[in-house]
Automatic annotation (TrEMBL):
Pfam families per the UniProt record, alphabetical: Flg_bbr_C (PF06429)
Domain Flagellar basal-body/hook protein C-terminal residues, every copy: 3-41
InterPro entries per record: Flg_bb/hook_C_dom (IPR010930)
Name of the protein this chain belongs to: Flagellar basal-body/hook protein C-terminal domain-containing protein
Source organism: Desulfomarina profundi
Annotated family: Belongs to the flagella basal body rod proteins family.
Length: 44
């Protein structure tokens, strides 16, 4: 019987890292949006 060439533990760690990176990017984008909105409010 042959086993698949997939390391489940490694794949889980990669998936968790990708999820954390995505969350960090979303947070950064939200912060940039808030700063831009505040800048527009200051300009009024």
């Amino acid at each position: 019987m042959k086993m698949p060439n997939v390391n489940v533990l490694e794949e889980m760690v990669d998936m968790m890292s990708a999820t954390k990176a995505y969350q960090a990017n979303v947070t950064t984008i939200k912060s940039a949006k808030r700063m831009a909105m505040k800048a527009l409010e200051i300009g009024r």
